[in-house]
Specification:
By secondary structure, the protein is of the alpha/beta class. The chain has a domain at about 90-175. The chain is built from seven helices and eight strands; from the N terminus they run H-E-E-H-H-E-H-H-E-H-E-E-E-E-H. Strand 4, helix 6 (about 130-135) and strand 5 (about 140) form a beta-alpha-beta unit. Helix 1 packs across helix 7 and helix 3 (about 70-85) packs antiparallel against helix 7.
């Protein structure tokens, strides 16, 4: 849950302790979490330090540089995820290729799923009026190039639609992926996984090192 981690980071940055409860009311399935300002305190969790990175963090739908992520960076990203109760690992060899095959299978299903196509149409903006007036969704200029080749999994937000002037590009043949996992598969674990992903993506706030794709 990216927004929950961002809220906690903002509260800690302001000098307060964010007392957080996941799924506080089991009779209200729409209430995923509650956060209470539990007094002013010194931030010892490192949450506040992530706050500046919230505005800088963004998705990239372009090919990444072909260079290995340093082991020190991998270890730090994994440590960030552990703070939120999740594990972050970097699959390689057969594990990596199995993950890529699963992604390809999922994308193939999306292509033939009418509901997925409708969802894509609702959350993407291609025509000029919607791009200039909408306050949510993904505008066409943020789609990135259409994938011409490579193994890196990239979602095509245009779907079957044509976008004028859109380029094509070759993506990584050996992509470096990071997986977030939890010990269990309960709703609260899903929320922990989302926060772990955001905490890892916002690390480190003081450098320009990119998070893994």
């Amino acid at each position: 849950m990216l927004s929950l981690l961002n809220l906690r980071a903002a509260i800690a940055h302001a000098g307060w302790h964010p007392e957080t409860r996941l799924l506080p009311d089991l009779t209200d399935r729409a209430l995923l979490a509650s956060v209470r300002l539990a007094g002013r305190t010194k931030d010892v969790s490192g949450l506040g330090a992530l706050y500046p990175a919230i505005r800088q963090r963004h998705s990239s739908r372009y090919p990444f540089e072909v260079r290995q992520i340093p082991e020190a960076v991998r270890a730090a990203l994994a440590a960030s995820a552990r703070v939120e109760g999740a594990a972050l690992t970097f699959p390689d060899s057969w594990h990596l290729w199995e993950v890529l095959e699963l992604v390809q299978e999922a994308e193939a299903r999306n292509i033939t799923d009418r509901r997925s196509e409708q969802d894509l149409a609702r959350w993407t903006r291609i025509d000029a009026p919607s791009v200039s007036t909408a306050d949510d969704g993904v505008p066409h200029y943020a789609f990135g190039p259409r994938k011409r080749g490579g193994k890196a999994p990239m979602r095509d937000f245009a779907g079957p639609r044509q976008v004028a002037g859109r380029d094509t590009a070759d993506f990584e043949q050996n992509p470096q992926l990071a997986l977030i996992s939890t010990d269990h598969d309960r709703p609260e674990d899903w929320l922990r996984a989302g926060q772990a992903m955001e905490r890892s993506c916002c690390w480190p706030p003081t450098t320009s090192s990119p998070a893994p794709s």
